[in-house]
Amino acid sequence: MKLGWIAVAVATVAVFGESPGALSITVQDAQSQVAAADSVYGCVLCHADKRRAFIEGIHSERGIGCHDCHGGDPASLEAVTAHSGTYIGTPDKLATVELCGSCHSDPDRMRQYGLQVGQVAEFRTSRHGQLLLGERNTDAPTCTNCHDAHTILTPDNARSNVHPTNIPGTCAGCHQDESLMAKYGLSTDQFELYRASAHGVGLFERQNFAAPSCVGCHGSHAAMPPQVSEIANVCGQCHVLVRRAFDAGPHGAADRAGNLPGCTACHSNHETERVPPDTIAETCVECHDAESRAAQLGVEAEELIVAAQNDLQAADEAIEELVVAGWQVGDLQFRYQTALTDYLQIAEFQHSLDVEQLEDLGRRVGSISRDIRATAEVSAEQRWEHKLLLVPVWFLTLSAIVLGWFKLRSLKE
Amino acid sequence: MASLINRTRDVLSRWRRRFRDDLKASTDASFLTMPRFFGLLYGPIDRSLPIDQALRKALAYRLPAHVGWRHALGGVAYLLFMVMVVTGVLLSLHYRPSSEEAYGSIQHIVTGVTFGWLVRDVHVWSATLIVIVVLAHMARVFFDGAYKPPRETSWLIGLMLLFVVLAFGATGYLLPWDQWAYWTVTEVLNTIAVLPLLGGVIVTALTGDAFVSGATLSRFFALHVIILPWIAFALLIFHFRMIRTQGVAPPRGKAKSETEGHSFFPHHLLRSFLVSVVVLAIVISLATLFPRPLAAPASPVEPPGELVSTWVVVDVSLALIRFFGPWGFALFTLLGLSMAFIPLFDRHPERRHRPVTAVGVVFFVGFAILWLVGHQLRFAGPDVGAPTATEIAEPAQSGLP
User: Fold this and answer.
1) Chain A: nearest CA to B330, how far in angstroms?
2) pLDDT surpassing 90 at residue A179
3) Which among A312, A329, B109, B324 counts the fewest CB atoms within 10 Å?
4) Nearest to B333 by CA among B227, B145, B198, B210
5) Is residue B113 part of a domain?
6) Is B38 within the bounds of a domain?
């Protein structure tokens, strides 16, 4: 018995000796509480590695212990007696859902943490849940595959598997497994495509957490590929104005009639391809006949948008030119922002294919751009006038050189 | 009473006599003709302080026969220095040394002040030309062997003046407080900070904050317009005094100048005048044709896409930092500083010391090459370590630990 106590103390020291130092004060407080409890907590004697992983997570911080999930007698320091009674060992995938749900579906327990309780119900509706709970297919993930079994971290922790920047990697852990995905006829290139997409660049490069990761479109616990008829709704959750314009136009009607795969018809899905303004007409003829009215509409829209884009670019360059020349450009930058807003509205309203509206917005962009360029021209004229100063300067200089040269020669003679 | 009248009459007659002598002397052609003719005070002053005599002596000073056009480089450097003093004073009337107002005041100088653009760009271009001219002057002195005893002190003071000129440029570079100035200074200070021993201390003293901020701008401004000018004038006076005392160095390989050449006035003064006129015309032309561009206002949180260099030393520094790292920058600086010890190794007036020549060649040619290379490059913005999407690691295997 005495040896057992020494072992507990040694194990505690060993585990704490390796624990990372950069933890928040709250976690450190929790750790010290757990350490105090360790002296009478038998599980850590043999499962020091599990304890090390567990103590970093939120469950440890909330005072949950091994026996709360695994059962058994933590007060026992002998393996046989510790693994007796309510002990369930390592729960399988199905039992894990039930085990997690026993707390996380209980509103009385979750209320204090402000957590939703619908995860298990949502999971049941997901493709993962259908496979696991409905078909007893253990290829499907359970709670611990995404959240980890022991180091359960909150989503705002950058080390968490479900932190926004880690979610694509977590999903890819299975969805990049070719042998696993081949069984279900799924491709494995989603992560690569997403990483290069506008959404991926927004999330990874700009650390813009508003950019959707996998769960933004597919849902998290209720993960499921959107149906064709749902695509516009899914994208429209964020792209509200685009969706409104899309619904108002002929493509919206076609989508509602089930003749168009929503936004993905032009933008694809995981790679969320941009359609550059100068390729709009080209994109239209992928579906429409080149001689059709629809294709002609595409050409008109392309011309308008390209002209507005050029106007905007010219205004931007003019402001840049003025900045370099030392002009104060606060007012012009404000006007440029107005033009930029109009241009962004063009980008949205093009989805309605309302050419008159596009023309109106294009005129406003062009008008502001002309004003800004006119100011830049005034600056350029001033700089040109400055150069005229060189005429008298060099006339006087050359005169001085000639006169001085003659004087030097006469002095030498 | 009678004695008082006599004494007054004596004083008046003595004053009348001196005034008549002064008037007579004013018919003599001299620089001081006009003040002498009009000034009632000048006569008494000149009698107690022999300005006229000193001036005549200076003008009559005969320079050795080998002194030619290439000896004008030192004078050109001084001319450019004075141009920078005058334009600097004019700029200081409008410039506001605070992080909130510095950028706006530069915009005001360039667009709102009459000929402000010219004053600023002449100041900026003089800063580049003075470095080139000082180095050319130094190279001329070096390859003429003019640093040898007894002129080693003059060489040392000249070298100190070079570093003062560089310090002037470095402190002045931040003052526009635009993105290029801010991030160039940040990059150079970051480079110095990693050097052992003095690196961190120097950067902390110069920055006055955890990063380049308004405190740094205040320090750089104080160095630029208060501290460095005093040092520069003191060193200049010392430098000129040494040259006047020891005379111009003899031609290479000779212990003494053999023949006396022309007097300073009018020969050399006329040459100096011609060179000055040409230099001023070049500076004004460069300022007019290639004004110093202004970047966006400095932002400590948003590095620019590229760093555009507007000073020759920045070209050299960034080329050193980007190609050879902090140690390349430090070693080249040490090479420049080591030039101070050259007179200790090369003392014989008639002999060439090859290792010393090699040091000089590496320094001057190295500077020229680095400048040319640096000037051709469009320096990418400072690396702030942000990953790109394609650099994000592959998904880690879930399951800790």
Assistant:
1) 33
2) yes
3) B324
4) B198
5) yes
6) no
If DSSP codes are grouped into helix, strand and coil, which group holds residue B258?
coil
State which amino acid sits at residue B103: Y
CB contacts under 8 A, A 189-228 vs B, are 191, 195-196, 200-201, 203-205
Could you report the per-residue pLDDT of A88-146, keeping only the tens digit for each? 999 999 999 999 999 999 999 999 999 999 999 999 999 999 999 999 999 999 999 99
Asked whether residue B398 is assigned to any structural domain, the reply reads no
Cβ–Cβ contact B3 with A under 8 A: no
What is chain B's Cα-based Rg? Answer: 27
β-sheet bridge partners, residue B379: B307
Q: Which of residues 321-380 of A touch B (CB under 8 A)?
A: 323-328
Amino acid at B286: L
Does residue B201 fall inside a structural domain? yes
In degrees, to the nearest 5, what angle opens at C-alpha B250 toward C-alphas B244 and B251? Answer: 140
Hey, are the CB atoms on B395 and A176 less than 8 Å from each other?
yes
Mind listing the pLDDT tens digit for each residue in A251-301?
999 999 888 888 999 998 998 888 999 999 999 999 999 999 999 999 999
Domain count, chain B: 1
Contacts of A195 in chain B (CB under 8 A): 389-390, 392
For residue A401, what are its two tokens?
A: 């050189």
Nearest to B129 by CA among B242, B347, B285, B355: B285
CATH number at residue B212: 1.20.810.10
- Enclosing domain of residue B112: 70-303
Question: Does the distance separating the beta carbons of A400 and B107 come in below 8 Å?
Answer: no
Cβ of A196 within 8 Å of Cβ of B110? The answer is no
Q: Give CA–CA dist A296/A69, Å, rounded.
A: 66
Comparing CA positions, the residue from B337, B333, B380 lying closest to residue B195 is B333
**Given a cut of 70, is residue A331 above it in pLDDT?**
yes
DSSP for residue B291? P
- Tens of pLDDT along B337-366? 999 998 888 877 776 777 888 899 999 999
- Give percent of chain A with pLDDT exceeding 90: 73
In chain B the first and final C-alpha atoms are separated, in Å, by 117
Q: Which of residues 381-400 of A touch B (CB under 8 A)?
A: 383, 386-387, 389-390, 393-394, 396-397, 400
